[in-house]
Every structure is written in C-alpha cells, then in structure tokens.
Amino acid sequence: MRLLFTDDTFTQHGQPFVGIPFLLDQHMELVEVANDYLMYLALERGKTRSPKTWRNHGEALYDYFSWLEANELDWSLVPGAGHAKTGISNLASYRNWSISLVDPATGIRSIKPSTINQRLTCLMGFYQWAQKRGHVPAVPWDASPKFVAGNSQGFMRHAHSAKRTEGDDLRLKVFREPPKLLSLDQSKLLIQACPTKTLRMMTVLMLQTGLRNEECRTFPRKYVFDPTGLDVRKRIRIDLNPADMLLKNSKPRTVFVGWHIMRELFDFLSYGEGALRAKMKRLDMPGNALPAFLNAQGQPFSEKGLNNAYRRLWAGKCPTLPFRVTPHMLRHTFATFELLHQSQRMPMGQALAWVRDRLGHSSIQTTSIYLHCIDLMESSELNAYQEELDMLGSSNG
Q: Which residues are bridge partners to 24 per DSSP?
C-alpha cells in the first residue's frame, strides 16, 4: 500500500488541486472506494477545505487499508446486529491491533490512545459515507445517544446546556492531559538556541501571538511595517486574512504584537536575513507576495520544516536544548500567559473569550483547558512573562 498526493497537474474543471491524498495497493492499482472518499472530502464537502485535514484522513485510511491488505481482509465486510454473535468487525480488530503495538525498547505503547481515536474518527467518517453511498449495509459499530454537559466551569455553566450527541462502542476512553508548554526560562533558552535569525523571529512571533505552525510559515511580509511614530507601550493589531495566509477553517482573526517585535521584524525583512533570503525568490514571485519567513534556499518552509528545525535543537546529533519543543507548544505557552495577563484586567469569563478570539477557537470550552495550565505555573513567573516577552526577540534580548 502506498500513500501519494496530487500535484498541480491534477485539475478539476481547469482548477488545480494540490495535496489531495490517494492510495495505491500492492499491485499499484488505485484503491477506488478510499480514493472516492478522499476526493469527496477535498472537492465536495465544504467543511473539509484544508489540505492538512485531507492529509489526516489520507494517513488514517492508509494505515487502515495497509493493515487490511497485510491480513487479507475486506473493508466492506460488516458484522450484522449483535457483534458478539456474528464476530468482531474489522474496524474493532484494527483498533485492538493498534492498542497492542509496543516499543520493545521501552515497553511503552507505540501509539497513544488519543491518536488511535483520531484515526478511528476519520475511519468512522469513511464508513458513514460508504453507507450513504450504498457500499456497505451498515456501519461497523453500535451507536447510542448520550447527553454531554456544558462547560464545567461554574461561571460559564449558564451559557452551555447539556446537548444530545451520539456515542459509540468503538473509540477508546481517554483522559485529556494538560497542554504541554514552556516556562519563561525555557522560552528564553529556546530563543537563544535558535541557529538563525529566521527561526528566532518565527519563535518570538508564535510566542507572542499564538500562531499555529502553518500560520507562521505562511505569515505574509505585507503585514510587517515600520512602527516608528506609534506608542511603544501599546501592542500593534494585525488582522489575519485567509486570502493572505493559511488559517484553520479559513477563519479570520486578530492578533497583537509588541512594538519592539514589529520593529525587529521590519528590520529583519528590510536589511537582515529575511531580506537576503527573499532576494533568492524574487524572480519567481512579487516580493510582497512572499511569506515573511523563508528557508535557507529562499523557499517557503515545508509542512515539516519548522518541526524539524526545532527537533534538531533537542534531538539532533549535538542537541543544544535539554527539553522537547514543538511549534504547538509555543501556542500553548502564549495562551496560558495571555489568559493570566487578561484575567488580571477583566473577569475570567471575558479573559477566556479574549484568548479564544486570539487563538481562533470555535468554542470557549476549548480555551478553558488553559485554566489548568495556570494552576501549574509559578505566579511570579506568570507575572514576569508579559513584561519580558516584548524584549525576547530584540538583538539584545
């Protein structure tokens, strides 16, 4: 089984679509039903417009169909009512196999339960689509209604009543872990360890705005300007537009950066490493259309480029950091410290709404996980963070 992706030669009605996953079996034949579903997600379904979402579904189907192929099983064989009487479904067997995978060196599970659930959710979507299309008579799990309570935080309870949803007997029960974030000292060490000015500026921007990986990689240079004349004590508003950059669900939002960070970004793009890297690409596209951050070859960062850059700092041949770092940890760090900062200026409910809008969350319940992060941090560190963050990206910071 192989997982491939379309390039710009794949078009529909004259429009190219890049990054749509598709599967080939061991005989290099198209896996038609899986590919039909992936095309549906990419070209028909309005709620799945992100290539990252396409990739997640493609990888889940690739893993499942590889397992089916290795065990010579047919995806469309679905047990009848009463699984115990008719045999376990292929999907449940795949789940059990995933749980059983263990790293022989450590004895620890190779795949986290939350990751297994993410894959199962993608596969359940595939089977629901297949049932509607008449490919299978039923979905291979038992569903039962359940009621989910609203936000458990007391001050927001009145705004969220219980709602009816559908449970299933397939996915695992998991307990949400607090988001992993950096302390103030770790943030400083990370910035100092960045081997290039480009990575340093990307790090500071994510720490101060909560940008996602793909948002930082596609952050447009036209959002950067000379802040001379503006009040250095006030943060600068930046309106993120999906027409200019990659935003999750194409949802626009507003973020704020400190005066010193904007100054540093402007100098970086005008005279520094950012300007030098942009010159390599200027023949291919207008300078204003470039992302603010380019790699050493003058190209936009790849999907894994930023992750790999951080990984080399803590897991490379000569690691310079004693702790693990991922781009999303910087987003969690921003959210925790920003929530603390805003809660000192306004009621906690309003502070949560403020951070929700900065992060682009659809629900305040998602943002409320950072309440637990605040409890785990030292109060002195929380109070110092906002004062020091503006200076982290400066040449002398």
A: 2, 30
The conformation of residue 72, written as its DSSP 8-state character, comes to: T
- The tokens describing 162, both together, are 């219980």
Token readout for 296 is 């050493």
Using alpha carbons only, give the angle 42, 44, 45 rounded to the nearest 5 degrees: 80
Instruction: Indicate whether 250 pLDDT > 90.
Output: no
The closest of 289, 239, 258, 269 to 388, measured between CA atoms, is 258
CB 370 within 8 A of CB 331: no
Extract the tokens encoding 393. 């990206």
The half-sphere exposure of 76 on its side-chain side, counting CA atoms within 13 A, is 12
Q: At residue 288, does pLDDT exceed 80? A: no
Contact 169, 91 (CB under 8 A): no
Mean pLDDT across 89-114: 89
What's the chain look like in SS3?
CEEEECCCCCEECCEECCCCEEEECCCCCECHHHHHHHHHHHHHCCCCCCHHHHHHHHHHHHHHHHHHHHCCCCCCCCCCCCHHHHCCCHHHHHHHHHHHCECCCCCCECCCHHHHHHHHHHHHHHHHHHHHCCCCCCCCCCEEEEEECCCCCHHHHHHCCCEEEEEECCCCCCCCCCCCCCCHHHHHHHHHHCCCHHHHHHHHHHHHHCCCHHHHHCCEHHHCCCCCCCCCCCCEEEEECCCCCCCHHHCCEEEEECHHHHHHHHHHHHCCHHHHHHHHHCCCCCHHHCECCECCCCCECCCCHHHHHHHHHHHCCCCCCCCCCCHHHHHHHHHHHHHHHHHCCCCHHHHHHHHHHHHCCCCHHHHCCHHHHHHHCCHHHHHHHHHHHHHHCCCCC
CB under 8 Å to 317, separation ≥6 — which residues?
Answer: none
* Euclidean distance between the first and the last CA atom of the chain, given in angstroms as a whole number: 50
Contacts 24+ apart (CB under 8 A), 187-190: 187/333, 187/389, 187/392, 188/392, 189/321, 190/313, 190/321, 190/325
Strands (E), 224-300: 236-240, 253-257
Query: pTM for the full model?
Result: 0.77
CA-wise closest residue to 113 among 170, 51, 37: 170
- pLDDT score of 375: 74
The count of residues in the chain is 397
